[in-house]
Write a structure and sequence with these properties.
5 helices, three-stranded antiparallel beta sheet, alpha/beta, 10 strands, Rossmann fold, binds S-adenosylmethionine
Length: 209
């Protein structure tokens, strides 16, 4: 189910990723809330090249940067030699103790899965966070025009792109309802950003255990 091959290829063209063009510093506007977390053990889930890892580290978090792509992690290490990286598949159980983490970030890394798997991931994140801990991140909005003739529908708002060999999920506000029953919603906000030179609509969220 995981698109490991797609992600390894995505990060193959390393020179392309030496630039900061993925970095939109989306967390700046939530800095006060994020930095109010007392336990500074943080996980960056689906960290990619570690833009958010860098932001969190600069804001005093001890971050473990996790991704399915070993190439992304190697590149991250070349940019941030002190980074603590771990290759994991988010769809498996998370290798962290219950109630041990203050903050989990998943920036644009949890919109590739069926609803059942997405629920499992949300529950696993809930488990590793300490009470009061924050789960922050962003998901694709369904305002993005990403579905084309190469996309096979698997379930509502969930597709497989046969050409790219990659899954994609789009979110509207309602879809969060079944995921966040156990969570306190601090922020759930639709916004627009620029990534890789193009406009992108995202849901930004901060949920509290
Ligand atoms: C769109 S990128 C976002 C990367 C980074 N968070 C950022 O903001 O640039 C999605 C990331 O999720 C990772 N990813 C996708 N599926 C994964 C999985 N099953 N387990 C772990 N990481 C995964 C990809 O390798 C990729 O780095």
């Amino acid at each position: 189910m995981s698109d490991k091959k797609y992600w390894e290829n995505y990060y193959k063209d390393l020179d392309k990723y030496n630039k900061d063009f993925l970095k939109d510093n989306w967390m700046n506007k939530y800095k006060k809330i994020i930095c109010s977390v007392k336990n500074n053990n943080a996980i960056d889930l689906g960290c990619g090249l570690g833009q958010d890892t860098q932001w969190l580290t600069e804001n005093k978090f001890n971050v473990i940067s996790c991704d399915i792509s070993s190439l992304a992690l190697t590149k991250l290490k070349s940019i941030q030699p002190n980074a603590n990286t771990m290759q994991i598949d988010i769809t498996d159980d998370l290798p962290f103790n219950s109630n041990s983490i203050g903050l989990v970030n998943a920036n644009l890394s949890l919109h590739y899965f069926s609803m059942d798997i997405t629920k499992k991931i949300f529950n696993n994140i809930f488990d590793i966070l300490e009470p009061g801990g924050l789960f922050i991140g962003r998901m694709n909005s369904n305002k993005n025009n990403y579905i084309d003739k190469n996309c096979e529908k698997i379930e509502e708002n969930f597709y497989y792109n046969k050409l790219k060999e990659k899954h994609i999920r789009l979110f509207d506000e309602e879809q969060f309802n079944s995921l966040i029953e156990k969570w306190k919603v601090i922020i759930l906000n639709e916004d627009k950003t620029i990534r890789r030179g193009r406009e992108k609509y995202t849901w930004e969220f901060i949920f509290q255990k």
